[in-house]
Write a structure and sequence with these properties.
The chain has 70 residues and is an all-alpha fold. It contains 3 helices and no strands. It has helices spanning 2-9, 12-28, 33-69. Helix 2 runs antiparallel to helix 3 (33-69). The longest helix is centred in the C-terminal third of the chain and has 37 residues, at 33-69. The mean pLDDT is 89.
């Protein structure tokens, strides 16, 4: 149950928007190395959370579809 609540609090749309911002900043190359590394770390973390969230949604859809078939 805690995992479901955690996924509901996570806003995948906001995370994807932030990932786009990070990507643009990194592509510009105007940051210092340490700032680029921090942006990269943030991007990796967000991408991982997006993946977890979407996998959770996929599992919910499988359960719904299974229950509809019964």
């Amino acid at each position: 149950m805690a995992e479901k609540e955690k996924n509901e609090e996570f806003d995948v749309d906001e995370a994807l928007e932030r990932l786009e911002e990070i990507n643009s900043k990194l592509a510009e190359g105007d940051q210092a190395l340490t700032e680029s590394i921090e942006l990269y770390k943030e991007g990796v973390t967000l991408a991982s959370k997006c993946k977890e969230h979407l996998e959770g949604v996929e599992q919910e859809l499988k359960v719904i579809n299974k229950n509809e078939g019964e």
